[in-house]
Amino acid sequence: MKHLDIQSVNLPPVNLTPVNLTPLDLVNHPLAILCLMLFGIAYILVMTEEYTSMRKSKPVLLCAGLIWGIVAFLYMGTGMEELMQKELERTILEYAELLLFLLVAMTYVNALEERKVFLALKAWIVNKGFSQRQIFWITGLLSFIISPFADNLTTALLMCAVIVAIGGKDKKFVGISCINIVVAANAGGTFSPFGDITTLMVWQAGKLAFLEFSALFLPSLVNFLVPAVIMSLFVDKKIPRKQNEKIEVKRGANRIIFLFLLTILTSVAFHTLFHLPPAVGMMMGLSYLQFFGYYLRKSLSRSIARKAAKAKVSSEEFFRMGAIVPFDVFNRVAKSEWDTLIFFYGVVMCIGGLGFLGYLELLSMNTYGLFHPTIANSLVGIFSAILDNIPVMFAVLNMNPDMNQGQWLLVTLTAGVGGSLLATGSAAGVALLGQARGSYTFMTHLKWAPVIMLGYVASILTLILINSQL
User: Fold this and answer.
1) 54: how many CB neighbours lie within 10 A of its CB?
2) What is the domain count for the chain?
3) How far apart (Å, rounded) are the C-alpha atoms in residues 6 and 138?
4) Which of 20, 354, 405, 433 is buried most deeply by CB count within 10 Å?
C-alpha cells in the first residue's frame, strides 16, 4: 500500500489566534456617552408627547438610527464588524417577532371594533341605569377581565369611552374612574402573555412558560382591588341619566371572537409543544380571519337579500342603510396602532445598541450585583413608572440576570403594574390622558399615587407569600 507523505502536501496555515467574541468596552468613550444622552433626550420627548403633540415614535426612531450609526463607526477597522452585524440582526429579529405578534392581535381587536362588539358593550352598560359607584366597579372589573386578551391599551380606551359617555362634564367621576381603569387594565394584563408588551417579551424570551403566568393572577387582583376599594369610597352613588342607545353588532362578530380565541390557542400550542416563536402561531391565526373575511364577502349578497326581505325593503335600499357592511381584513391591518409599533422598534433598537456598548452590563452590576434580586426587581416597577415599562423590561431581558422562576415572576409583576404609579408610566395611562383630556390629568393621577403604591406593595407581598417555595 502506498502511504501519503503529509509533509509533501501543501496545506493552508491554520490560524490558531483566538477570536475575540466579546464586544468592546466603550462605556467611557465620548461617542458612547453621546448615545446615552441622545436616548435620554428622546425619552424626554416621548414623556412630553401630551404637551408637544409630537408622536412618540419620531424621537426614538431617529435616536435608534443615530445610536447604531455611532456603534458602526466605533467598530470600523477593529476586525469585529461581523460581531456588530450579528448583534444588530439579533435585535432586529427580536423586534420582528414582537411586531408580527402584535400586528395580528391588533388586527383582531380592530375587527371586533369594526363589527361594533365594543360599542354594543358600551351601550349595554350605559342603558342599564347603574349608579356612578356601580359603573366605577363594572368598568374596573371589565378592564381587569378583558385586558388579558385584548391588551391593556385597547381595554383602557374602551372603558374610558364608557366613562366619558356617562360622566360627561363630571370631572371628578371621570378622573377617578380613569385612574381605576388604568390600574385595573395594567394589573389584568400582567398575568397573561397577551395582556401587555412586557409579559409578551418575557414569554417570547422563554423566561416563563404560558401556564406559569397564572401564578400572577392573585397578586394582580390584589394590586387592582386595594386602590379600587379605597377610591370607591369617594365615588358618589347618584344615578346618571339613562341614554337610550341601541347598538346591533354586525354580521360575523361572534365568530370573530371565536377565531381570536382559536388564534391564541394556536400561538400557545406552537410555542409550548413545538418550541416555535409565538408569532408563528399568531400569523397562522391571521389566516383564520382572512378565510372568514373571504366567506363574508362571498356570502354578502345572500345575506343582504335575506335581511332585506325580512325588513320588507329592496336589497339596494337595505345596503344603502348600512345594515350590512363588507369586511376587509387588510383594512383592519391598516388601522393598527402603527405609531406604537414603530415606537417599539425605536425602543428595542436603542436598548439593543446601548447594551452592545456595555451600558446594560454596567446597569446590571449596579442593581442585581449590589442588591438582593427581590429588592432589585421591586425597584424595576418604580423605574417603569418613570421611564415606561417597555424599555425597562427589555433592558432587564438584555441584562439577563441569573434568576430563578420566582424572581422572573416578580419582575414580570412589578414591570406590569409599576407603570400604574404615574399617569405616564404605561401606554394605557398615556392614552387616557388624551381621551379624557381635562378630567384625567397627570396631577389627578398623582394625587392617588400613595393609594396605588399601597396596592403595588401589597401585590409584591402577596406574590412572595404564595410563591415562597420559588
Assistant:
1) 12
2) 1
3) 84
4) 354
pLDDT in tens, 384-405: 887 777 778 878 888 888 888 8
Answer whether residue 45 is part of any domain: yes
pLDDT tens profile 316-354: 554 444 445 556 667 767 766 787 788 878 888 998 899
Euclidean distance between CA atoms 101 and 106, whole angstroms: 9
| Residue 284, in any domain of the structure | no
Cβ(326)–Cβ(297) below 8 Å? yes
Tell which residue, 379, 392, 371, 386, has the closest CA to residue 422: 386
* Residue 65, domain member (yes or no): yes
Residue 41 counted as domain residue: yes
Per-residue pLDDT tens over the stretch 135-186: 999 999 999 998 888 778 778 877 887 888 788 778 889 999 999 999 999 9
439 residue type, one letter: S
261: Cβ contacts below 8 Å, ≥ 6 apart: 149
DSSP 274-316: S---HHHHHHHHHHHHHHHHHHHHHTHHHHHHHHHHHHTS-HH
C-alpha cell at 333: 391591518
Q: How far is 428 from 180, CA to CA, in rounded Å? A: 11
> CB-side exposure of 23: number of CA atoms within 13 Å?
21
**Euclidean distance between CA atoms 207 and 209, whole angstroms:** 7
Give the domain extent around 83: 30-91
